Amino acid sequence: MTVTQEPRAAAEASAIESRGPEPSASRCVVVYGAYGHTGRFVVAELRRRGWTPVLSGRDAAKLATLGEAYPALARRPASISDAGALDRALAGTVAVINCAGPFLDTATPLIEAALRAGIPYLDVTAEQQAALDVFEHHGDAARHAGVAVLPGLAFYGGLADLLATQAMGEWREVDAIEVAVALDGWHPTEGTRLTGRRNHYRRRVVANGRLDLLPDPAPQRDWTFAGPFGMQPMVELPFSETITISRHLRVRELHSYLNRRALEDVRDAGTPAPVAVDAQGRSAQRFTMEVIVHRDGRQRRLAASGQDIYAITAPLVVEAMTRIVDGRCRGVGVLAAGEAFDAADFLAALPGVELEPVRFAQCAG
Ligand SMILES: NC(=O)c1ccc[n+]([C@@H]2O[C@H](COP(=O)([O-])OP(=O)(O)OC[C@H]3O[C@@H](n4cnc5c(N)ncnc54)[C@H](OP(=O)(O)O)[C@@H]3O)[C@@H](O)[C@H]2O)c1
């Protein structure tokens, strides 16, 4: 199956305006891709925080199945290729959170619908090209519409952006930012695998102050994590944080690494999908993300740890959406997380993320 093919239910979806009760108040937030693995975490997080999710996605039957767990929530099926159905899905809501990847296929139509509706758009893309397209193609229209558009509010992307922004502090310009992620394993979802196959673009890094292609083969190195992960063999593997950070932080070199064990897992076709081990549906996966900012031989380091990279995406994107709707977002247009919000305040508000304080150190040589 190619990624642009849609299940039969999608064709029917566009003909169905809405199923289930209509949203009643301005606490309604559309979750597109609501029945996906990440979408489900986002729906649960919205409810936990008192929002009313509107369940949307291209497959009416999958929405109906999800709706059995949430009979009070509106369901609005909409194919990504049907602008009218997307408009109906977003009607009367305060924001849309797009959890349907590959975002190379879904971001543009949903952003256009959000701008027509005059509501903020957020997604969870890890894809660099999808994030880059959003900045390059939708910035003017979003500013003109007075709407905030935030790509990559997720584990890969937004979390590193916020950590780097906080670690920068008052520094306006830095020599280098390094992002290092260690996972004790990575059981990928079907969406992760599909997105990997769909995204054939060469990855990018920041080198000499501008976006450049990641060398092939990707550089390898060791990284010593402060916590239980200790020393890990790493591969340079940048995600959407490269795009967002490079839009608002002045940095000459930006390099992101993933531990080799996680990369081997995700590249192995036999690695199973994540399995829930707790009442929140999280897998047992542990993560640590460290960010080091370098300037004039000095370093600042900040680390975040937690459980399940898919699950932690939900509080990230819901916190961002909440701040936009509450009026705590600095501006309109396409924005990176660290540009839109007070990074330290945002990170401190995140449930399920253990933060280590910034350390100030002299570079050893
Ligand atoms: N940046 C991060 O850290 C981060 C974290 C979590 C997830 N993600 C990304 O989020 C995406 C979803 O991941 P997941 O784990 O939730 O996967 P998943 O469980 O497989 O869910 C994928 C969802 O996307 C929908 N979808 C895919 N292509 C679509 C299209 N062309 N039109 C409409 N809907 C479409 C699927 O609908 P159907 O079932 O109808 O196909 C499904 O609802 C992936 O791209 C993943 O990389 C990123």
Structural commentary:
There is one protein chain. With 365 residues, the chain is of the alpha/beta class. The protein folds into two domains: 8-150, NAD(P)-binding Rossmann-like Domain (Rossmann fold, 3-Layer(aba) Sandwich), CATH 3.40.50; 155-311 and 352-362, Dihydrodipicolinate Reductase, domain 2, CATH 3.30.360.10. Helices cover 36% and strands 26% of the residues. It is built from 13 helices and 16 strands. The chain has a seven-stranded parallel β-sheet, with helices on both faces. A seven-stranded mixed β-sheet has the order 10-11-12-7-13-14-16. It has a two-stranded antiparallel ribbon with strand order 8-9. Helix 4 (83-90) packs across helix 5 (103-117). The N and C termini lie far apart (52 Å). The protein binds NADP nicotinamide-adenine-dinucleotide phosphate. NADP nicotinamide-adenine-dinucleotide phosphate (NAP) binds at residues 7, 33, 35-39, 57-59, 62, 80, 99-102, 105-106, 124, 126, 154-157, 189-192, 195, 309-310, 313.
CATH architecture level-2 label of the largest domain: 2-Layer Sandwich
Strand content: 25-35%
- Please, how many helices? 13
Total number of β-strand segments?
A: 16
